[in-house]
Design a protein that fits this description.
It is a single chain. With 219 residues, the chain is α+β, with helices and mostly antiparallel strands. It has a single domain, classed as L-fuculose-1-phosphate Aldolase (3-Layer(aba) Sandwich), CATH 3.40.225. It has 7 helices and 8 strands; from the N terminus they run αββββαβααβαββαα. An 8-stranded mixed beta sheet has the order 4-3-2-1-5-8-7-6, sandwiched between helices. The longest helix has 24 residues. It is globular and about 50 Å long. InterPro entries: Aldolase_class_II_sugar_metab, Aldolase_II/adducin_N, Aldolase_II/adducin_N_sf.
Length: 219
């Protein structure tokens, strides 16, 4: 495969290990993928493999129709979900699906995670909505997630977990971390009183500022 694909495999393998390191998953659940636009393919984690042992050679390369282009392993069972998001969102080049505990608690309660802190507002662009329940790996679940995600960058899967999307897989990973932190803060704030949710207009301004001017310009 081309050099860009090999680099993408290395990147996904490296971030896979961080899923365990940062406590975003337990066991072999959760999955990651990245789009390689030069080749119009997706590199995705294999199904049911120990993230501590996973290597770049274990990655699976799919085209956007879901056909295996490279790899000896079976792709993640959530490949249809990843591919549906890539087809629906031209701005997305990385997807991370986690089972972090507090975000998953909101998914079980089927309650959105509201934008109560500015970093979450900047990264997500609004509340983290809950996609209607469907069985894992199904086309129905994929469609439900795409619908609930809309143009935001994170969505909850009812009774399941969290999906973060980004312009890169690194950004998607960070979004999952920040959403979990926001979920924790929101849950704690609910025990203290009524949380104050950031106004919709301010959320839009924060999101736009992050997308257009946050960080350092590319050289």
């Amino acid at each position: 495969m081309k050099l860009a694909v090999e680099r993408a495999k290395d990147k996904v393998a490296r971030l896979s290990k961080k899923l365990i390191e940062y406590g975003l998953v337990a066991g072999t659940w959760g999955n990651l993928s990245t789009l390689v636009p030069e080749e119009n393919v997706v590199v995705i984690t294999p199904s049911g493999m120990d993230y501590n042992c996973i290597q770049s050679a274990d990655m699976v390369v799919l085209n956007l129709a879901g056909e295996v282009m490279d790899g000896e392993r079976r792709p993640s069972s959530e490949a249809p979900l990843h591919l549906s998001i890539y087809r629906a969102r031209q701005d997305v080049a990385g997807i991370v699906h986690t089972h972090s505990e507090v975000a998953s608690a909101f998914a079980v309660a089927r309650k959105p995670i509201q934008p109560v802190v500015e970093d979450a507002a900047m990264l997500v662009g609004g509340p983290v909505e809950v996609a209607a329940y469907a069985l894992p790996g199904t086309a129905e679940l994929a469609q439900n997630v795409v619908t609930a995600l809309g143009q935001r960058n994170a969505v909850l899967m009812a009774n399941h977990g969290l999906v973060g999307v980004g312009r890169s897989i690194e950004e998607a990973f960070t979004i999952c971390q920040v959403v979990e932190k926001c979920a924790r803060i929101y849950a704690w704030a609910n025990t203290l009183g009524k949380p104050v949710i950031l106004p919709e207009g301010d959320v839009a301004k924060l999101y736009r500022a992050y997308r257009e001017s946050y960080g350092q310009p590319k050289k």
